[in-house]
Write a structure and sequence with these properties.
heterodimer, A: 329 residues, mainly alpha, two-stranded antiparallel sheet, 13 helices, 76% helix, globular, B: 429 residues, alpha/beta, 5-stranded parallel β-sheet
Amino acid sequence: MHKVKSSSHLRTFIFIGFILFLISNRVDELRVYQGIQVAVYVVGISSLILLTGYSGQVSLGHGALLAIGGYSAAVAKNIYQIPTPLTFVVAVLITAFAGAILGIAAARLSGPYLAGTTLTLAIAIPSIANQFKVFGGEQGLLFDVGFPPLSLGEDFTQYKWFFWIAAACALISTWFVKNILGSRYGRTWRAIRSNDVAAELSGISIARSKILAFTISAGVAGLAGALLAMSISTVSPSAFPLALSFSLLTGAVLSGLSTLSGVIIGSVILVAIPELADVVAHRIGSSEAVVTNLPGFMVSALLILTILLAPNGPVEQMRAHKAHKAHKT
Amino acid sequence: MDRKNRAKLITASAVIAMASLVLSAIPAQAREVGVSATEIKFGMTVPMTGSASLGYNKIPGAVKAYFDYLNENGGVNGRNLKLVVKDDRYVPMEAISKTLELILKDKVMALLAPLGTSNNIAIASSVNPGRRGIPVLFVNTGFSGFANQKKYPTTYAILPSYIMEAKIMGAYIKENFAGKKLGLLYQDDDFGSDALAGFKQAGIEFAVKVPYASGSQGTATAPGWITKLQAGGAEVVVLFGVTTASIFALSVAAALKFAPQWILGSVGGDATTIKLAGVPAGILFNAVGSSFAPATTDTTDEYVKLFSEIYAKAVPGSAFDNNVMVGMNTAFITAQAVKAAGANPTRKSLMAAINAKGANFASAGLVPLNFSSTSRVGYNGFWFGKYSSAGDLKPVDGKYVVYTTDSGAGAVVKSTYKRPAMPAKGLPN
């Protein structure tokens, strides 16, 4: 039964990939770049949903894990001359290792203490990167994944190439996360989130499960970091500000923390809001102050509305609504 | 076919041929991206919101104020100059997406004064305006690398580099504080390492050096800096860091009764940011500072007088400070570049005009511009002054003494540069 579900997931993801491929050939470079941003957010938010939504461990500093992934990929490429595809694997492995260490500490913490620890990490990691010459200081390091293969044609742009890589990675990682959440590990994490005492009484090792969740989540976040670095062709401390961690958390809440299906919604909102706000502000001829502050205001308003009206996210809300309707009839 | 019909056919063929020629010539006469019959568009990415926006978010308003003034006076060759501003929140990923918006959606002719070292590096590597042939005029950072024409073929620097600044500061220290015990408080990253390289070239030895990590400046760390400087017996302390570091260092030093002669770098001596942070500008009193533009309080300076009048009209109630001065000056230089690029400017002719005539453009700077076909360096020097109790930087004894140098091994010299008179009404001629 599980195998059938998994292969049906795979078919869905391949179909989505085909649709994305078609879209990427029909939109301009700006939309393609925004597509890359969406893909980065999809990977980043899904890793946060796995950690916070499923295993119940709050992370306010997921941007730090993205930073570890981005820097790992850039160092692997620039210093160790590792082939580009492997740099993404290196990013995943190193960040997963860092996540495992963090997970050991996190297993002893919970609630606000864990939130505080991860927040500190988000502030500290970029500053630490600034301290070592190997990380290139404030200017950071270049991360050049190279030009697209010539076989794709001369008109095939760099950003389309980035988009294909990012979209493929996003699809594979989401498929992986979706499957793992549906596996016994996912069920274990949900049990811990719901009631850790009951879970422990059922024979679940809380510490081991939490460390595993942190490790896998960090690995996925590392991939997001490497993709982010690819999209901007560099890594630098300012590429991973505290605001990135908050954006990921905002995206996760907008997506619905306890369901992976809405991850694309949160990601698209994060990318679309600034442009939408710009259009709205210019249509109504607002002042400079309104233009600059409107995106922040719109995201905040959406966040509040989501928490009030659809606390489990829009997808879960729709499912509940449908189930309620079906029950009535 | 009779003769009459043949003649008709020949005439028709000739007309069609002529029409084809005319039509085929139209694309050749088509205007450059961002240039219409009435307008030329420039695009700027700058932090308008977020922690890095303090002070810098006044720059777009300053550029627009000058452009509006210029446009009211007929624009450049009948075209108005327009600035499209995008908030990048000082985040490279945002800077790239906003730059793409400027290029692909707003279709600007050139990027103007994008701010920040890492953002500019990310834009150059990812969007690659150099490969696209898009001019990046007057980047707002002191990173010396942007003058590398091979790496950044369409980028023009304008601010003196941090290495130049440290070299010049070193010469000033030797001249004015010889024999004093020197201390250095610096940001421990590329910004600070550029400074260390410059001081080394200037032959300056510090008795005590205190590095701080970028972002670590605060009430918890500042007492440690000051204690170390105090214990080292520093009589003159150079502060080569950002303005927030200046705020904490100067405030804590005052509280601990440590009163050396402070020398602030151009980045860390921004009185406006200090005031906007809610700290009295008086903490800067008597510190030495440097600038390449005239003192913003010097209303005897023709540029300060004109620019402050234009700005007061455009943005009432907003203080005329160094960020505004630099923004309006950048706009003024841009207008001259457009004028020099001819009646129908293109991206190529704009860059060719700066290469050929940029060194002779009029500007508010008391330091020469150094543009040429082989140089993308803008200003290359500073004058030194002292801060008043109101936080205004004024030249010592009211006289501007300008020092110039390069980012390499060149000597620091006292400049004999005489700034050309401002063109009539501050408009490009």
